[in-house]
Design goal:
Layout lengths: L1 H23 L5 H7 L3 E12 L3 E4 L4 E8 L1 E6 L2 E7 L3 E5 L3 E4 L7 E2 H8 L2 E5 L4 E10 L4 H5 L5 E4 L6 H17 L4 H23 L14 H12 L7 H8 L3 H12 L3 H19 L4 H7 L5 H12 L3 H9 L1
Parallel strand pairs: 1-9, 2-8
Antiparallel strand pairs: 1-10, 2-7, 3-6, 3-10, 4-5, 4-7, 6-11
Helix pairs in contact: 5-6, 8-9, 10-12, 10-13
C-alpha cells in the first residue's frame, strides 16, 4: 500500500512539473514587453493627512498614483473641472501639476515645502479629516514614451469600479514595504509599483474610448492584437505587409486602414519603431556593439540599421550607445 501511494505521489509530481513547463511557454504579450523596456523605477511613497481648510500643489516627476483612504477632497488641474474625490477613489496623474484641496477654490502652497520637513508622512492643516496614500514612479527606458503618451493627464478610478479595490490594496502594500526597512524592500516597492501601473493600463484599455488609446487600442481588437503579438514576439523579423494581412485574414488595404485606425501608425511604421526600441534597450545594456545588435535584429547592413535607428531615435546607434553608457 505504501509503495502504491508513493508511486501515485511521484506521478502527481511529474504531472505538476510538466504543467509548469507549459505555463512558461506562454504566447507573446505586447504590453508586458513594452513594460520590460520602459525602465520603471520607484521614486517615492508618501502618506498625507489633512484637515480644515487646506490645499497643496504637487509636481509629479512622471507618474503619481494616489488613493483616498479616508474622508474626501478635491483634485484640481489646469484644463479640467475640479473633481470631487471620496474614500476609495483612486487617481493617476501623468507629468502634470495638480492640486489636492479641501475645496474647489482654496489657494494652494507647494507640497514639496510640506514634505521636505515631514519626510514620507505629512500632516497639514487642522485635524485629519482626509488621508491619502500615494506612490511615484519614473520611466527611463526606450519604451517610456509609448506608455506615457497612452495615458491622459489625469485618470480617475472610482471606488465602485472593478479596478479600485486592487489599486487601493496595492498602494497599502507599497506603503508597508516602503516603511518596513526589511531586506528586499526596495525591490518589492518597484514590483508593487509595476503592478499598480499594469492595473492602471488595464483599466485604461477596457474603459477608455478607442480613439483615445493610441497603440493600446490595438490590444482591444482581437484581429490587430494577434498581429501585435507576432510583431513583439519576433523583433528580429521585418514582417512584410502581406504577411501581417494574411495573419489578420484581410486584404492589405483593409488591414492597413484598420491597423492605422486602432494603433495610430501604419503597420510598417509600428514594426520599425518596435524593433528600434528593442535595439535601444540592447545598446543601453552595454554588452553588445552596434554591429552585433544590428545582426541580432535581422539587419544584414549596419548602414540600413543606422538609418532606421536614426529615424526613430533622432541619433545614430553609436551616439545613443555612448550617451547611454555615460
Amino acid at each position: 500500500m505504501l509503495d502504491s501511494s508513493l508511486s501515485s505521489l511521484d506521478e502527481t509530481a511529474q504531472e505538476t512539473r510538466f504543467s509548469i513547463v507549459i505555463i512558461q511557454n506562454s504566447v507573446s504579450d505586447p504590453l508586458s514587453e513594452v513594460l520590460a523596456l520602459s525602465g520603471l523605477r520607484a521614486a517615492c511613497s508618501v502618506r498625507l493627512q489633512a484637515g480644515g481648510t487646506w490645499a497643496l500643489q504637487f509636481r509629479p516627476i512622471e507618474l503619481k498614483f494616489n488613493v483616498v483612504r479616508r474622508g474626501e477632497c478635491w483634485l484640481r488641474m489646469d484644463g479640467m473641472a475640479p473633481c470631487h474625490l471620496r474614500a476609495g477613489d483612486c487617481f493617476v496623474v501623468a507629468r502634470t501639476p495638480f492640486v489636492l484641496a479641501s475645496g474647489p477654490d482654496v489657494e494652494a502652497i507647494n507640497a514639496s515645502d510640506v514634505f521636505s520637513h515631514a519626510g514620507a508622512s505629512a500632516m497639514f492643516g487642522v485635524g485629519d479629516d482626509v488621508e491619502l496614500l500615494g506612490g511615484s514612479v519614473s520611466l527611463v527606458g526606450p519604451a517610456a514614451m509609448e506608455l506615457l503618451d497612452a495615458l491622459p493627464p489625469a485618470l480617475i478610478i472610482r471606488a465602485g469600479s472593478g479596478g479600485a479595490s486592487s489599486f487601493g490594496w496595492l498602494l497599502d502594500e507599497l506603503d508597508r514595504e516602503w516603511q518596513s526597512n526589511q531586506a528586499g524592500a526596495h525591490a518589492m516597492c518597484n514590483d508593487l509599483l509595476r503592478l499598480i501601473f499594469i492595473h492602471v493600463l488595464r483599466h485604461r484599455i477596457t474603459a477608455a474610448d478607442a480613439t483615445d488609446l493610441n497603440w493600446l487600442g490595438g490590444l482591444r481588437d482581437p484581429v490587430i492584437a494577434k498581429v501585435l503579438r507576432a510583431i513583439h514576439g519576433a523583433p528580429e523579423k521585418s514582417l512584410r505587409l502581406a504577411e501581417m494581412a494574411d495573419m489578420a485574414c484581410m486584404s492589405r488595404s483593409g488591414f492597413t486602414a484598420l491597423f492605422k485606425t486602432r494603433v495610430g501608425q501604419s503597420p510598417g511604421e509600428y514594426v520599425t519603431r518596435w524593433r528600434m526600441q528593442v535595439a535601444a534597450s540592447r545598446l543601453r545594456d552595454g554588452t553588445d556593439n552596434v554591429a552585433t545588435v544590428a545582426a541580432s535584429l535581422g539587419y544584414l547592413s549596419d548602414a540600413a540599421f543606422g538609418v532606421a535607428f536614426r529615424r526613430v531615435h533622432g541619433k545614430s546607434p553609436g551616439q545613443y550607445r555612448r550617451e547611454a553608457l555615460r
